[in-house]
């Protein structure tokens, strides 16, 4: 009789021990689980990711943008007076046009944004998106007007400042860009602000500061598309300073992070060509153009083919450039700067001068000064060309960015004016900044510098 109670007591003790052990294990799991033992929140939907990106001015993936635009279109069929949804739809379409290099999205973006403003005229997100759209179309004066209208309504909204800074830079107003950056940094910190600061620093010639900001931005970025965009900009900066290997690493990492980062794909083509890996460079450019047909990539690839003596292949891509520029113009975009640059080197020089004179009146930026100066030189107007080249290369005159191409242009203009000392200095500077800055022009810079030779000791100090 005693055996049964003892057996029952043993089973009871084992049950208690098992319960205690189970509680201890469960308690350990609860301690280590995030969210206090509760299930984590659901991952954001594609629409939510795209909306967070476009409302804060950071890149989104094409797939997420397509999901957002489709959702907003469905919503607006039954809620046509939703001003906020119209603004979000317009902003998403602006970003789609930029990510896909397809200006056909922009008239539809403008239609959505104007509808948003018709429903509610003080719609600050719509005004801001109109500024972003104008910058994308390279209409920086309109971008400034839209951005200022948004800032007047809500001066403390930080998202208004990045498109205003871009507009000021595009208009050649570097001082205003600096003031706007100071205000932006008072209102906000984070990767979006770091990237905008890097652009301003780059334009001032502060390369190390710009590189540091981009590194911090890439480290702090949220979604892969955002991080990849910042890595691509870091690659651009490395390329501009002539660091081929570092540029290639940044571009490759950007593509690994976001396979839709076609600007980085084109950047790989640029760096690979400079490294002598020509077959890979041509492949990278073709891949970029297949999915992101920006006219500047067609120009770069055409010039690479021309440098290889493959003129028919180059002409195919020059024709593609003209086609893409025409498409952009038909949808409200301004590609006069790029077209003027192209015509100056590969087409109608007189047309290039006319285009760039008009562009200088509209938007007197450093880039336009350089392009107009070069076009005038190519047209034989060397004396008139020089002040524009000086404007593009002298920090005291607004040309703070250290560009090998700009220095080369100035050196060749000075060479034509028989200012050989100044020409020697600026051609050498171009090759010091980036010895591989162009597959066509870098060899010409080396040849011109070799013809100039070393300065004569008997001649004394060289004049500028």
TrEMBL record:
<dbReference type="InterPro" id="IPR011990">
    <property type="entry name" value="TPR-like_helical_dom_sf"/>
</dbReference>
<dbReference type="InterPro" id="IPR019734">
    <property type="entry name" value="TPR_rpt"/>
</dbReference>
<protein>
    <submittedName>
        <fullName>Tetratricopeptide repeat protein</fullName>
    </submittedName>
</protein>
<dbReference type="Pfam" id="PF13432">
    <property type="entry name" value="TPR_16"/>
</dbReference>
<keyword id="KW-0812">Transmembrane</keyword>
<feature type="repeat" description="TPR">
    <location>
        <begin position="228"/>
        <end position="261"/>
    </location>
</feature>
<feature type="transmembrane region" description="Helical">
    <location>
        <begin position="16"/>
        <end position="37"/>
    </location>
</feature>
<keyword id="KW-0802">TPR repeat</keyword>
<keyword id="KW-0472">Membrane</keyword>
<keyword id="KW-1133">Transmembrane helix</keyword>
């Amino acid at each position: 009789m005693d055996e049964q109670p003892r057996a029952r007591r043993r089973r009871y003790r084992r049950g208690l021990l098992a319960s205690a052990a189970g509680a201890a294990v469960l308690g350990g799991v609860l301690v280590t689980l995030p969210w206090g033992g509760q299930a984590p929140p659901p991952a954001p939907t594609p629409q939510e990711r795209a909306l967070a990106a476009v409302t804060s001015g950071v890149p989104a993936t094409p797939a997420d943008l397509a999901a957002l635009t489709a959702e907003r279109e469905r919503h607006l069929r039954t809620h046509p007076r939703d001003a906020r949804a119209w603004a979000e739809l317009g902003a998403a379409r602006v970003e789609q046009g930029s990510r896909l290099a397809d200006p056909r999205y922009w008239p539809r973006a403008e239609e959505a944004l104007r509808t948003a403003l018709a429903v509610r005229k003080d719609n600050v997100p719509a005004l801001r998106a109109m500024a972003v759209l104008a910058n994308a179309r390279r209409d920086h004066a309109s971008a400034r007007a839209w951005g200022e209208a948004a800032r007047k309504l809500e001066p403390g909204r930080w998202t208004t400042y990045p498109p205003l800074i871009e507009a000021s830079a595009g208009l050649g107003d570097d001082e205003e860009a600096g003031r706007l950056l100071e205000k932006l940094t008072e209102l906000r910190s984070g990767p979006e602000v770091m990237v905008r600061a890097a652009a301003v620093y780059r334009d001032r010639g502060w390369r190390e500061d710009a590189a540091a900001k981009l590194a911090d931005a890439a480290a702090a970025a949220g979604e892969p598309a955002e991080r990849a965009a910042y890595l691509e900009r870091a690659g651009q900066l490395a390329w501009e300073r002539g660091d081929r290997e570092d540029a290639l690493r940044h571009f490759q990492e950007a593509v690994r992070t976001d396979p839709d980062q076609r600007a980085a794909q084109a950047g790989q083509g640029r760096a690979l060509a400079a490294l002598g890996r020509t077959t890979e460079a041509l492949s990278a450019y073709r891949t970029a153009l297949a999915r992101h047909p920006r006219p500047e990539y067609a120009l770069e690839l055409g010039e690479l083919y021309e440098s290889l003596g493959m003129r028919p292949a180059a002409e195919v891509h020059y024709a593609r450039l003209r086609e893409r520029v025409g498409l952009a113009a038909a949808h409200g975009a301004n590609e006069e700067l790029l077209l003027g640059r192209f015509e100056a080197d590969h087409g109608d020089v007189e047309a290039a001068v006319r285009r760039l004179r008009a562009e200088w009146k509209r938007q007197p930026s450093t880039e336009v000064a350089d392009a107009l100066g070069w076009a005038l030189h190519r047209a034989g107007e060397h004396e008139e060309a020089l002040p524009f080249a000086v404007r593009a290369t002298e920090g005291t005159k607004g040309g703070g960015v250290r560009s090998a191409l700009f220095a080369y242009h100035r050196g060749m203009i000075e060479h034509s004016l028989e200012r050989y000392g100044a020409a020697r200095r600026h051609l050498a500077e171009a090759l010091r900044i980036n010895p591989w800055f162009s597959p066509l022009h870098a060899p010409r810079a080396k040849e011109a510098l070799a013809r100039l030779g070393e300065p004569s000791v008997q001649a004394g100090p060289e004049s500028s």
